[in-house]
Automatic annotation (TrEMBL):
Organism: Azohydromonas lata
Lineage, highest ranks first: Bacteria, Pseudomonadati, Pseudomonadota, Betaproteobacteria, Burkholderiales
UniProt protein name: Acyl carrier protein
Gene3D superfamilies for the chain: ACP-like
Length: 87
């Protein structure tokens, strides 16, 4: 499968970079269908770190409903784009 790093707005590549840093997994390749637990270090605390890092990177703030709806990496990509569209 192809890495998520190939996109026009940089969301996939940026999220993949954040995951690699937070999970300490420099070779990690994300797929949109991935969910919490698909990597041994990806737990609820890592989720918080990932969300905070995404907010800082793109200068956004997720709404509670957006956070609640994130079930997969693909959902996170979508939530970032929605939050960016509000700026």
């Amino acid at each position: 499968m192809q890495s998520c790093g190939h996109n026009e707005d940089g969301v996939e590549a940026g999220v993949e970079e954040i995951f690699r840093e937070v999970l300490m997994a420099p070779a990690l390749t994300l797929e949109p269908q991935m969910v919490t637990g698909d990597h041994e270090r990806w737990d609820s605390m890592a989720n918080v770190e990932i969300l905070l890092a995404c907010e800082a990177r793109w200068g956004i703030e997720f709404r509670f409903a957006e956070i609640d709806a994130i079930r997969s990496v693909g959902d996170l990509f979508s939530a970032i784009r929605v939050a960016r569209s509000r700026r």
